[in-house]
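Researcher: Next entry in the queue.
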Amino acid sequence: MNKTQELIQQSLALEIANKTLQLAGLEAELKQARETIANLESQLETASKLKGGDE
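Model: Structure for this entry, 55 residues:
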């Protein structure tokens, strides 16, 4: 493999690693958003029960 091919391969490997890290970050954000939604739904349900409504 010549130097140009090695550099291209290294560049692609770095790009893949970067995309993998970005994906992991997005997955963490998605998990946090789902937890926030679940918490808000729970609060809404509690508030609805305290209010006596069936909303």
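Model: The CA atoms of residues 37 and 51 lie 21 Å apart.
Researcher: Noted, moving on.
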